[in-house]
Amino acid sequence: AQSVTQLDSQVPVFEEAPVELRCNYSSSVSVYLFWYVQYPNQGLQLLLKYLSGSTLVKGINGFEAEFNKSQTSFHLRKPSVHISDTAEYFCAVSGVNYGQNFVFGPGTRLSVLP
Amino acid sequence: EPEVTQTPSHQVTQMGQEVILRCVPISNHLYFYWYRQILGQKVEFLVSFYNNEISEKSEIFDDQFSVERPDGSNFTLKIRSTKLEDSAMYFCASRDDYEQYFGPGTRLTVT
Questions:
Q1: What are phi and psi of A48, to 5 degrees?
Q2: Do A90 and B104 touch (CB under 8 A)?
Q3: For position A64, which CATH number holds?
Q4: Which domain holds residue A19?
Q5: From residue B60, how far is each of A41, A112, B16 by CA, in Å?
Q6: What is the span of the domain harbouring residue B83?
Q7: How many domains does chain A have?
Q8: Which residue in A41, A44, A49 is closest to B91 by CB distance?
Q9: pLDDT value of position B69
Q10: Which residues lie closer than 8 Å to A33 by C-beta, 6 or more apart?
Q11: Could you give the CA distance from residue A26 to residue A35 in angstroms, rounded to a whole number?
């Protein structure tokens, strides 16, 4: 079984500042890792994913994340945020075995301030 | 690009009533899932479905819930007798070899 921790429930940041949203996971098997964004009253939009290969993955809207196997982390970063990035961000993990469900973290609320 | 669709987008029902939430997974996917998100909380796994049977289910998925693939395209979640605490967003997903693709969700409001 897997579990996901997002230590920061809320992250306020000023517009154009950099941001890092932290995600740590635990798993007894190899995993795939994902970040989703959810805007108010909307569904889940995939930001980026790590399946294999390069540990630095780039996603949509200027976001990137780095997979660190030794620290079991998959932190999300953006060098300069916009007001429109205000949303809830969820980290998710899935075992690599075919068919395994996703386990989501509790989410981090990113608030970008003018 | 193929996508997962869900109907209705919003369902309001009275406590004790049965509801059926519908999903059309991506056509060549074999694994299907239902997740639930209570307002302001995280997304929780309910059930996975493969080869016309439940593959795995969480503690949340009790006898009040059932899933079915009634035909070649639809995948449904039935809640037999809704409770106030069933109010949530319900997401359907289907999976290829690596990742799950989520539908837009059905917001269920139980009054």
A1: -165, 170
A2: no
A3: 2.60.40.10
A4: 3-113
A5: 23, 34, 18
A6: 10-96
A7: 1
A8: A44
A9: 92
A10: A23, A25, A49, A50, A65, A67, A74, A91, A92, A93
A11: 16
Residue whose tokens read 């075992």: A95
What are the pLDDT digits (tens) for A93-112? Answer: 998 887 888 999 999 999 99
Residue from A6, A51, A102, A109 to probe the interface with B (highest B Cβ count within 10 Å): A102
What is the structure's pLDDT at A66? 96
Residue B91: give its domain's CATH number: 2.60.40.10
Chain B within 8 Å of A103 (Cβ-Cβ)?
Answer: yes
pLDDT at A41 (0 to 100):
81
What's the pLDDT at A99? 81
Q: How far apart are CA B78 and CA B76, in angstroms?
A: 6
- Where is B22: in which H helix or E strand? strand B19-24
Contact residues, chain A, for B91 at CB < 8 Å: 43-44
What's the CA angle centered on A44, arms A102 and B35, to 5 degrees?
Answer: 45
Backbone angles phi, psi at B52, to 5 degrees: 65, 25
